[in-house]
Amino acid sequence: MRERDDTARLHAAFVGGEDRRSSVLRVGLLGCGTIGRLIAAHADGFEVAALYDQAPEQARELAGRCGGVAYDSFAAFAGFDLDLVVEAASVRAVRAHGEAVLAAGKDLVVMSVGALADAAFLARLREAAIASGRKVRIPSGAVMGLDNLKVGRIGGIDRLVLRTTKNPASLGLMVAERMLVFRGRAEECVKAYPKNINVSAAIALAAGQELEVELWADPAVDRNVHEICTEGPFGDAYLRIRNVPSPGNRATSYLAALSILALLHDLGEPIVVGT
Question: What residues make up the domain containing 56?
Answer without folding.
Answer: 25-142+256-267
